[in-house]
Amino acid sequence: MVMMFPEVKDDNEKLHKLVIDRLLIFKESFELIAHVTPKSLHNGLFVEFQDEVATGHGVLQEWLLLVCQALFSPENSLLVKCPEDCRRFFPNPAQLKPEQLDLFGFCGRVIALAVMHRVQVGISFDHVFSLQLAGKEISSEDIQCADPIMYRSCKKTLEMDADFVDSDAMGLTFVREIEEFGSKKTVELCPGGNNIVVNSKNKEQYVNLHIQHCFVKSITAKVAYFSRGFADMLCKPRLAKRFFQATCLIGLDCALLGGDNAIRVKDWKAHMYEGYSETDEQICWFWKVVKGMSMEQQRQLLYFWTSVKYLPVNGFSALPYLLTFSKTSGSDECLPSSHTCFFQLALPHYSSLAITQGHLSFVCRRHVACSFRFL
């Protein structure tokens, strides 16, 4: 899969440089990614945050994660979260303004850049979206995750007794209600659909047209813009559809979601190069606190330390570097700090377990993990 992307260069001088203001991360990222030639991005990215000294792969990882979170957020209404799996998304069927379609092209480029740089962003696609990108047909079984309510309704309609359907007890015709720019309207699923009553002979056609209108016709332009943006990052853009045909949803999940299993502290410790001695009190306290954390707290600590929130499928062994401690001479009032570009945690020589626990808990809070990274 990654072989279809250009090779990321090791020479920083050949990378496309981005300097981003954290407060304007979505707006500036769109301008600096969507409006440049694809070729200028093919060597890879070098990302810096304005007025911050940190550089390197850790900053790139953080930037990709934050941009993806913004792109897939409910506030932007570009993509809809699957009700039963909040990690999976598909394009919002609601009508968008023409200028908003460019955001789908931007989204395609960003997702492709994440795959190209081997960064797991914790977000992937619903089955419906992946089928669309591969140019495949959508059936009623395919919408089960994207819209469980519609799936059950369609299945119930198809399984209904013929006599009951023919009695017109359901009162259905070949129309559906949609939302367009904040107001609801009724649209026909086929010419004259308003006057075609659903019966036992045409119920399969009705269900199919209903699904096609909701999951194909209403998002065709959005899928096309996303696919075009994604294709911009491939060595051969014309092979975009073939990429999604050859890459099953499991393959995309491995590239984008990473592993969803609980972090194993034993594995974490095994991939450490410790600046402290293993028997030092500070290290014993550190691992005792980590073992007592929730899974989300452990993810936040890992993110603070490395800018990696979602481990690769193969776990710590698939990370590019060993994680390291560095001993600092700070007092008990000092927080830990991190150098995410080379996976180093600067841990002060704390005097007690309680102080260690308090400071680690502080840096694990979601809003702190993004703002105290380079103390």
TrEMBL record:
Pathway: Protein modification; protein ubiquitination. Residues 37-375 form the HECT domain. The active site is at residue 341. PROSITE patterns: HECT. InterPro entries: E3_ubiq-protein_ligase, HECT_dom, Hect_E3_ubiquitin_ligase. Its EC number is 2.3.2.26. It is an enzyme of class 2 (transferase). One of its GO terms (molecular function) is ubiquitin protein ligase activity. GO terms for biological process: protein polyubiquitination; ubiquitin-dependent protein catabolic process. Gene3D superfamilies: Hect, E3 ligase catalytic domain, Hect, E3 ligase catalytic domains. It catalyses: S-ubiquitinyl-[E2 ubiquitin-conjugating enzyme]-L-cysteine + [acceptor protein]-L-lysine = [E2 ubiquitin-conjugating enzyme]-L-cysteine + N(6)-ubiquitinyl-[acceptor protein]-L-lysine. This is HECT-type E3 ubiquitin transferase. It comes from Papaver somniferum (Opium poppy).
